[in-house]
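Notebook p. 47: complex prediction with adenosine monophosphate.
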Amino acid sequence: MSSRLKNITGTFDILPAGASREGVHAQGAAEWRYIEHRIRSIFERFQFEEIRTPILEPTELIARGIGQLTDIVSKEMFAFEREDTQYVLRPELTAPVMRAYLQHRMDQLGGAQKLFYIGPCFRAERPQKGRYRQFHQFGAEVIGVEAPMADAETIAVMMAIYHDFGVTNQRLRINSLGDAASRPRYRDALRAYFEPFKADLTETSLARLDKNPMRILDTKNEKERRLLDGAPRLVDFIDSESQEHYEAVKAYLADAGVAYIEDPFLVRGLDYYTRTAFELESDELGAQSALAGGGRYDLLAREIGEEVGVPAVGFAAGIERLFLAIEALGHAFPERSHPDVALVALGEAAGRWAFIQALALRASGLAVSVDLQGRSMKAQMRDANRSGARYVVIVGDTELAQRAAPVKHMATGNQESVAIDALAPYLTSHAPQGA
Ligand code: AMP
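Predicted complex, structure tokens below:
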């Protein structure tokens, strides 16, 4: 058996070109750059600013922010201790972004902070299609605004990103979780409702009944799902202000032309949500159907130690799942970029000339490939063809002596002899960068 080291199961390498094999993401780095670039440009249109926070965070932030009883904190954290400090590889970015907002007094910048992020997250889950141990999220947080238009704007930017990629067949489910006082009342009602059905509950749900009965609503068990039909609904327990807030969010979503389904049993797995909660899912994804999720989290700042609450709303989305949705719809990614020029050099002197010439052409803004190991003309021509270079310049001792070389325009097959001292101006005018 080979002892060659491999990447950790549930992580993958993003190679220059993608591949369908274990440990490698199906899409290559160019596709990732393309996706990230388009996400950024939509956020820019909506005037969100990028924030980048560390991958390592204090464990306490995640434990207090997300909640001890959640799956993420109780089972899925990659956490370790080193010299009295407890570190966690961030499992999400909402708590870290809120930490940064509070730490750097971003409230003093005035108005709402509309922030977005793109980056890796880590959860010790059982890896399967669409579920990894290192995955990537993009998301947004609107911090400092309680007004329901902020909830609608958050959902609108999320939908705009999926639309931009042609992913339009998804379902948006929404609900309101009410304020901090609504939930205990609802939990009591749920406990009372499930009490006579205890014998029908799975072991997991029985354990949840006591501590956190709202989690039973997430059940995938058929029998339990049928029980939910008669269960009390959170919307009937929420305070009137939250009710009004929810109505306004729905009205703004209608204004924005965003279709949604109200789901009274959508509670989301994290503790910090209040009022609006939403999830975006697609049937194309199979078992891991969630593309994105989010909601309002006015309680988070207090939970991580702030005296005064800070209203905020946001969403988080999985990039790997966005890829899966795009692929499932059969959408193509744009062609990879090609070099402007490939230099083909024969012999040592020409090889050295090409090495220097490539640097000069690159300095004038062209993308240039050059052979680094004195290979045969056939091998160099094959690479030049494969790379899709627009121009190929072939140089040997004769060309060097005559100070002129053939420049071949690959699209037409036309060839022209160009003075080698004038190659840079010739190529930059024929193959301007970025063209
Ligand atoms: P959550 O914070 O769990 O709601 O996650 C937000 C989004 O991130 C989900 O809707 C998924 O698209 C994505 N996501 C969450 N966990 C994973 C994972 N383990 N692997 C891949 N994507 C994930």
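Notes: The mean pLDDT is 92. The chain has two domains: 19-179+238-328, 341-430.
Next step: compare against the earlier run before touching the bench.
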